[in-house]
Amino acid sequence: MTNTARASLVWREISGLHPDNCTQPHQCQTQWFASADATRRRSNFACISLAEKREEKGFSPTYAQLLKHPLAMVALVPKDAALFAAGAIAGAAAKTVTAPLDRIKLLMQTHGLRAGQEGARKGIGFIEAFTLIGKEEGLKGYWKGNLPQVIRIIPYSAVQLFAYETYKKLFRGKDGELSVIGRLAAGACAGMTSTFVTYPLDVLRLRLAVETGHKTMTEVALNMLREEGFASFYNGLGPSLIGIAPYIAVNFCVFDLVKKALPEKYQKRTETSLATALVSATVATLMCYPLDTVRRQMQMKGTPYATVLDAFPGIVARDGLVGLYRGFLPNALKTLPNSSIRLTTFDTVKRLIAAAEKEFQSIIDENRKKQEQTANDNSI
């Protein structure tokens, strides 16, 4: 996330620089040097300049000034760390608020497989799933399995953030710009990296949400290790990677392109970010939701599907094409509050950081002026 400073040494020919044009030829001798390609080049002039940004520690705010301007304290936190923390908190809050819709979506996606082949074609609707959870498990049932999801979202956001920044640097062109293809590739790779790292927690969340008889995440994990082995934590990883790659790629790319297409005066507005995020999330979800359904059914204990190629025709044969989009309604409904909470929180913190940096800099400028004034007074 940090920018690495680099020094560049550039050789340039200066027109008109020739010994014959010099009033004292003996002071203007032509020098030859060997270049990297083993050829000899002539250099008549060389100049190296080094610029270094000076630290303004001598003008830093005092403890009393920070107490008087508490907002400036935020500027003491590294910006990357502050943004990372904001993203993690926003993601956890969004997941908690939308947990009931996510639980309903999971039940709708996996009902046919859990009900057995006889009742598989009947499926389960949104209202029916909502009522079933409340009747059998009470209010707490709507947040069942949310803890591992919240735990998962923190490292997931961290890995995705750093991975995306790293991949963006790798995919930049020679001119330093990131093309549409490069942005798609960076988003896809970042999505797959974060998914692979946190996938076991996602499997645990699913087991807690749809299977009965387990009360804690530890109990589920131990039972999976004992009965199914370590590989069970990565069941359905293939379709997960295939699904998350285009989803993150499309989501990021559409968000950037739509926002850039808007007039500049609207680009920095919070409501613009919210609307743009909803559009990009909707497009990405419509394209990639069937892979999410396949992934969920492959994660289930006793699943008859070994590969993605088995799962797709199996689900279509049992439920029809609609089966691939089962649970889409609650998933679409949770997109609005999820995106709103995350983006609003993130934008608010970004504005807070910007305001803190501005106030911090104003204190530094004030201290500098005071020291300069004191120095001038002493000189008199």
Automatic annotation (TrEMBL):
Q: Which domain of life is it from?
A: Eukaryota
Give residue ranges of the Solcar repeats: 78-170, 178-261, 268-352
Keyword Nucleotide-binding set for record: no
Q: How does it sit in the membrane?
A: Multi-pass membrane protein
| Subcellular location as annotated | Membrane; Plastid, Chloroplast envelope
Any Gene Ontology biological process: transmembrane transport
Kindly report the protein's main subcellular placement as a broad class.
membrane
Q: Which Pfam family name is an example for this entry?
A: Mito_carr
A single cellular component GO annotation: chloroplast envelope
Q: Which UniProt keywords apply?
A: Chloroplast, Membrane, Plastid, Repeat, Transit peptide, Transmembrane, Transmembrane helix, Transport
Q: Which family does it belong to?
A: Belongs to the mitochondrial carrier (TC 2.A.29) family.
Q: Spell out the PANTHER family in the cross-references.
A: SOLUTE CARRIER FAMILY 25 (PTHR24089)
Can you name this protein?
A: Probable envelope ADP,ATP carrier protein, chloroplastic
* Organism field: Sesamum indicum (Oriental sesame)
Q: Which gene encodes it?
A: LOC105174558
